[in-house]
Amino acid sequence: MRILVVSNRLPVVVERRGEEWCLQPGSGGLVTALSAALRRRGGTWIGWPGIVDADVTEVARPLATFGRDAAYDLEPVWLTAEEHHGFYHGFSNEIIWPLFHDLQSLCNFDPNYWRVYGAVQERFADAVVRRAGPADFIWAQDYHLMGLGYQLRQRGCTSRIAFFLHTPFPPPDIFCKLPWRADVLESLFTYDLIGFQTPRDRDNFADCVRRLKPKVRLQRGRGGLHTLRHEGRSALVGAFPIGIDYAEFGGAAASERVSQRVHELREEMPNTQIILGLDRLDYTKGIPYRLKAFRLALERYPELHRNVTLLQVVIPSREAVPEYQELKAEIERLVSQVNGEFTQPGWVPIHHVFRSLEREELLAFYRVADVALITPLKDGMNLVAKEYCACQIDGNGVLILSEFAGAAVQLGRDALLVNPYDSDHVAEAIRAAVSKRHHARRPAMRRMRRAVERQDVYWWTEQFLRASGIDTDIVKEAEQPAAEVPEMQVPLPPASDVRATWAWTS
Questions:
Q1: Which of 84, 144, 166, 230 is flagged as catalytic?
Q2: pTM: predicted TM-score of the whole model, two decimal places
Q3: Would residue 110 show up in a list of annotated catalytic residues for this protein?
């Protein structure tokens, strides 16, 4: 049995240099873990190569060469510029992305986007059918490919097909605003395993099924897996929190070059606690809310003046989209206002960085930060929180985390959980975090690091494949067996006037 991974993009970066096409391997824990699984078992990664309207034969050759070197095949899905716009920029990112993050007012429900999305699902399905055998396992990734299972079944595919959603899944009141809600649910029913990041997302999906498809049977099972039965088929539905490559992050953060950069940053920002905000430019990350809360903290607690510096890093993303241009302008305006009001000789409250970071600089920022301020309005997981913990090799950091981030499932007991919409709440959490002494910080950070290490990206891969009925000797052995994640009430650590909040935690 082979594994076929299907995602929006191939795990390579394709670019033209002069007269030749060149490929660079993609980065990130997901690529690393899935590539390891493919190499051990054998298989194919199927996806769009990242270019449109190119000469197929020119690019196919380097893709084939890369596949031989990687020990698994690459199967490109070719799209025109029009298809990519309607499928990716349109349906995926102007409809599903905001809707699944509870921001339905930002959706553009253009019917043409739905038609193009369906046509591209067919294009991906054709590529899978060319490669898949009856005994193969097909693993579709994320909201771009919710309809792939349906298209494969229409083509007579009898292989095991699984789907994992990397974003949140919305509750019924929001999901029902999608004009094609029934079609999306029906498509998901064709998978053998449907995976979500958290029990909250799994249960939102179950609630949508109960409301929109009351005749579909949904039975709770052991280990957090539900069984869905529909028209003679059954599917498992579960929560599988994705992780990072903990060992790689921790080891790289301890390198000499990163340590030297940490020393330089401390000299550049002396005698101050550094609060790190690090986000892709996106309206789901809550950056304007965060900046307003930081301003409130400076107004309310004068003892923070000259003693804290917010290092806010924003990674450029979709800058050509008007909404993102407006967001960038709003962030710059807020930074300017705070710095204009509170800057003193020798101290600037916010250092705003708007660019991509080199790997070593990123790791140095994680290590140097006394506090990480990670406050998305909603996130499927938010791996930045886990990366921060992995890089805190000195163990002195404090994590302030949005209760609406999926990472709150695993880190909620030891992070300071906040409602990102509540400026008072976040401002008080900032004060509480910087007031913590090192001996009080280390036990919580040690527990969070242990959780991130135990449930890393290899653990995630293993648990998902195990739930799919596949033997799991293809990835690093997990330290502990999977267990259902219970839902619990988790208060914030003691701090004056900080209200309790809720999280799901293991």
A1: 166
A2: 0.90
A3: no
